[in-house]
Design a protein that fits this description.
Helices cover 41% and strands 14% of the residues. By secondary structure, the chain is an alpha/beta fold. The N and C termini lie close together (9 Å). Bound molecules: phosphoenolpyruvate. Phosphoenolpyruvate binds next to β8.
């Protein structure tokens, strides 16, 4: 990570885990451990139904609340969808966009991801855009091509003035929930490639301000090594975020004196 130019973000993706009733105890523990952390932005992304409770429980702390998805549309006849404006008005500040589970299981393509990014930015949310290759793509040696295309499509139509609100999460699909992590060096190289794609489109000054996270079986043991890579500015954490103590350990790993 490079704190001179960009902030550090440690984000929890709870996926479809935990009911609203479990939130309060989690929030109390997390707040007591890292609720005043100044060295990074902490984001918790619960299911939609837990969002109002999360906002209430984390109020007054440094923990922000994010959503796990957002509609590509602003308003209208889209049964079951939730718009960026609705999230923003509820107090949500971040939203995960294009998670590989949504791409694979709900048919989200690059064009839809791009629309969701623009919709989120339009409502003042910070999109955490997920990109990453499958194991097959990695074995075929096309990781760079896949990730480059995903980043370019997600950023299509995003003006320079808004690019600083973007966060990219490099999440190799084969590492998600599998217990397998990319080596720190490999993950760092792909993060550097992502930054180069942004640099080519928006210039060096803009590119160095965009936080790039790593996601994929990050835990309290491997976090520090991954975070020491110059182009990795935080983590998007699934499994290891479900217990507040483990998630707090990853937040602690991002502390400057630990690096
Ligand atoms: C994720 O789903 O974004 C993720 C990184 O999950 P895990 O940490 O469990 O691999």
């Amino acid at each position: 990570m490079n704190r001179k130019y960009r902030g550090v973000v440690i984000a929890a993706n709870w996926k479809m885990n935990k009911t609203p009733a479990l939130l309060k105890a989690y929030a109390e523990t997390l707040k007591s451990l890292v609720g005043h952390a100044r060295w990074c932005d902490i984001v918790v992304c619960p299911s939609f139904v837990s969002i109002p409770g999360a906002i209430k429980s984390f109020r007054g702390s440094r923990v922000s609340v994010g959503a796990q998805d957002v509609s590509a549309f602003d308003a209208g006849a889209y049964t079951g969808e939730i718009s960026a404006r609705q999230l923003s008005e509820t107090g949500v500040r971040y939203v995960i966009v294009g998670h590989s589970e949504r791409r694979a299981r709900y048919g989200e393509d690059d064009a839809t991801v791009g629309k969701k990014v623009r919709s989120a930015l339009g409502a003042n949310l910070r999109p955490i855009i997920c990109v990453g290759e499958s194991l097959q793509q990695r074995d075929m040696g096309v990781t760079g091509d896949v990730v480059t295309l995903q980043v370019k499509s997600a950023l299509a139509g995003v003006p320079e003035a808004q690019i600083r609100r973007i966060i990219i999460a490099y999440e190799p699909i084969w590492a998600i929930g599998s217990g397998k992590t990319a080596t720190a060096e490999d993950a760092g190289n792909v993060a550097a490639l992502i930054r180069a794609v942004i640099r080519k489109k928006y210039g060096a000054r803009v590119a160095r301000a965009v936080p790039i996270l790593y996601g994929g079986s990050m835990n309290e043991e491997n976090a520090q090594e991954l975070l020491m890579q110059p182009d990795i500015d935080g983590g998007l954490i699934g499994t290891a975020s479900l217990e507040p103590e483990t998630f707090a350990s990853i937040v602690m790993a991002a502390k400057l004196d630990n690096m």
